[in-house]
Amino acid sequence: xxxxAFCNPNDKRPHVNRPFTQGDYTYALDGALIVRVPxxxxxxxxxxxxxxxxxxxxxxxDTLTVWEDPPSGALSGIPKCGICDGTKKAxxxxxxxxxxxxEFDNVHHxxxxxxxxxxxxxxxxxxxxxxxxxxGTGKDLKKGRVKFGDRYFSVYYIRKIKKELTGIKMSRHGxxxxxxxxxxxxxxxxxxxxxxxxx
Length: 199
Ligand SMILES: [Zn+2]
Ligand SMILES: [Zn+2]
Known about the structure:
Layout: E1 20-22, E2 25-30, E3 33-38, E4 89-92, E5 101-105, E6 110-114, E7 123-125, E8 129-130, E9 145-148, E10 151-154, H1 155-164, E11 169-171, E12 182-186, E13 189-193
Antiparallel strand pairs: 1-2, 2-3, 3-13, 4-7, 4-8, 5-6, 9-10, 11-12, 12-13
One zinc ion (ZN) binds near residues 81, 83, 133 and 134.
């Protein structure tokens, strides 16, 4: 498995943009998803205080016996992607060069404004590249949800788990009223996914 796939390299927070080791395990986390594998070299923490208390999460995987296949990451009924407007293709915004902001200066000051062409996201619809936001699906994956047991989960994360991992099994364990995370196992480790709200 590629543990880096579960980090967000663009995030400025050090515990999110790379994996980190606490105790006997190495963790990777991004948004609602966290995975844990046996300790890997090269991911020691520089400053322990900066890292989240992942050891307080309910790592109950070893106590569970009933596991199921993951739900489908089907895309029906999901709203279209706001970046490519459902066209599946995107390009770097020509106005801001993908920066999301444009700068003006006069003799006294430099001003930074959000780019009005891309509304700050740095992409323009159309082009030849698969839209990076929706991975070329044309759908707003983060808004899409899939039911597993009594809880709803983001299609985006379910698809990521299924794309990056093998031997995946998921558990219905956890109180849905308590917004308990979904526990899952895979070849080489285990993880948790936080549910979405009801809406
Ligand atoms: Zn898109
Ligand atoms: Zn722009």
